[in-house]
Amino acid sequence: MELSTWLAFFVASWAISISPGAGAVAAMSSGLSHGFVRGYFTTLGLVLGIWLQILVVGVGLGAVVAASSTAFLIIKWTGAAYLIWLGIQQWRSPATPVSAQADSGQAVSRRSMVVRGIMINAVNPKGTVFLLAVVPQFLNLSQPMAPQYLVIALTLGFTDLVVMAGY
Prior knowledge:
Blueprint: H1 3-18, H2 22-34, H3 36-58, H4 61-67, H5 69-92, H6 110-122, H7 125-133, H8 145-166
Helix pairs in contact: 1-8, 2-3, 2-6, 3-6, 3-7, 3-8, 4-5
């Protein structure tokens, strides 16, 4: 990937990371509930989730999803159902006052926060649309795909780690 192409992709990845969505809500929720350091495990999961989507696109399944409106609808509605389920769980949970303490006392494991982050981004339709619609614009089909997808994955991971820390 040429430097000028990567710089353009770098700007696009900031735009997708900054735009509010399920990941931003999850990052803010974890930070408020568990403090910055412990809550950041959700952000690590968010990055792993987007990397999972990049892997799927990178091995060619993204083309199948792009060609099949049914497959895309299944992914989109599965993601929507999961996000609705998360919203209902949050809505049904008891209200707790926001305090300056680093932990609200809830015994949530780091692993479960990482898994929650993975699930949020792995089935996030916004991520799927971004990867299927935008990422191919930055690929050079005459060069090997694996290194290009690696650069894309590392760039998206970096921008998400920085932006979600801000959220």
